[in-house]
Amino acid sequence: MDSKLDQAIREFIKAINSDPRIKSLTKAEKEMESSEEVSFLASEKSRKNDEYYEVCRFFKENSPEEIKARKALFTAKKNLDSHPLVKAYQECFVAVNSLFYQIDDAIFSAFKERVRCKHD
How confident is the model over 63-108, as pLDDT tens digits? Predict the structure, then answer.
């Protein structure tokens, strides 16, 4: 790779990694991953997900068993998603995702096919 391009890429990566949104996401991720409560809620959601799919193998949709398992899965997911550390991580993730879309647009917009309306 060209030396100037290689240097520019290294500087670009350094700039991205020093962005406050990236730093906030990294911090939120570490806090979330180190939380025993979040870990428990995540494993509970996973367990309820497995139970739901197991019920679906044997019972029809909207059967009492399927409805009960679906509600249990919904509750487990809601409990996980509403945990303050998970919510903080998700907010940071949205901000970083927006940053990456802006970067993608700035770099690749000239290469994307544009859809144009036909004129009569």
Answer: 999 999 999 999 999 999 999 999 999 999 999 999 999 999 988 8
Quickly count: other Cβ atoms within 10 Å of residue 38's Cβ.
18
Residues 82 and 68: their CA atoms lie apart, in Å, by 21
User: Taking Cα atoms as reference points, which of 80, 104, 103, 100 lies closest to residue 90?
Assistant: 80
Helix (H/G/I), strand (E/B), else coil: 108: helix
Which residue, among 18, 32, 19, has the nearest Cα to 88 in the 3D structure? 32
Q: Which two tokens stand for residue 118?
A: 């036909």
Distance from the first to the final alpha carbon of the chain: 48
- Cα 40 to chain centroid, rounded: 19
15 within 8 A of 39, measured Cβ to Cβ: no
